[in-house]
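Team,

Forwarding the record for the chain on the shared tracking sheet. I've put the sequence and predicted structure together so nobody has to dig through attachments.
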Amino acid sequence: MHHIRLYKTHAKAHQLVYCAHGRDVKSRPIGSLLGTSIQFDDEGKKFFYSAYITAKFLDDNVNEYRQEFNIPDKSDKNLHLSGDEITMEQIESAAMSLTRTYLAPIIASIEAQKSERINKYVQNQSPMLRAVLKYCPEAMKEIELNCTDEKMVQILYSFKGKAEYEIRQKSDRLLRTQGKSIEEMKPQYEEITEKLDVLQKDQLAGYVLFRKMIIDVLDKKLAMNSNGKYSNEDIVHDIVFPRKTDSNSISFENHNLWLIDELLAFHSYAASDKRQCDINTSSSEERPDVVVFSEVGEDRRARAVSLLEFKKPQRTNFDEDPTRQLFRYVREIRNKESVWTQNGRPVTVDATTRFYCYVICDITQQVKEFAENGNYATLQGECGYYTYNRNHNAHVEIVAFDKIVVDAKQRHKAFFEMLGIGG
């Protein structure tokens, strides 16, 4: 193989060129195999790449017109090959391996720039496409570094169908502890969405409907069941954000952080029920229920971090004030200036980072005493308590489950009524 950089050429593509007897016989564009068809950059000088392949085997197997090779394209049992024959597919595979090694630094630079651009666009402009990058990485190959935003979105949406299928399979496994509630809502959801399809409602209507059902499921799971018992906190936890996952492994549609705060849905990174030592530089094995990096600046420093802690509905005995538990997480993160990673990139927490801490529980007598001892202010309607801890730069709320449900219904009331699904 002869690696050629063509700085001044009429060629418009990177290619493999197969030669015989000192002449080129056939060529193969390889932009799709490299993941880019744009010109490469060599310290400001643009070039297209060509690899010229020569071999006695090619000389011996070129046809008499020197326009084609008498070599099978690939192994095929119908051709009665013995299995020892060399195919063009094998030659191309070996050639591309050498090509990728030769171009590795250039391709790595392009992929890094492309990844940064796509991730930034999806995060800021179209978070509902986030799962496409996780479950359909081949979409990245079809997106050129210099393509328009419109073309990029078109490609991502073309892969969204496959991503949704993958997500459904993944979600079924991730939400296995929530199986009963999903089964309870699924028939009703399918029936209503089928009707909406008939009326040619768009995807947004379906998403609003899904939100309605999530709120109804949460409301139902907070009530006492037929056995006179309340659900464990993990049931509520999974509805808001499935445990043992993070925002790189599930889609925008498969977490419901909007139940707590709409802004949390548009985060940079979130992790649920994962050890701190698995997702930052801490040595702590404690597991915050949910930690959310809702604001990350261009300098990769976290401006705001939210922590959610769920408690079992109607729990009456606490081993410790749950806000102390959250402060322990805050201290562990801030004091060590822990570096969290999003897709392998560091995010630094420092003294300027604001923390928003939520204890989500029923307001029992013991919780009221915790709030009184901490000099908390009472939220409107006595559905929770608030304080600001100056030492931790932390805003802290103890929020009643009922308030989460009521507030979510109020925020969506106009949309529900518009679709005729109020109540």
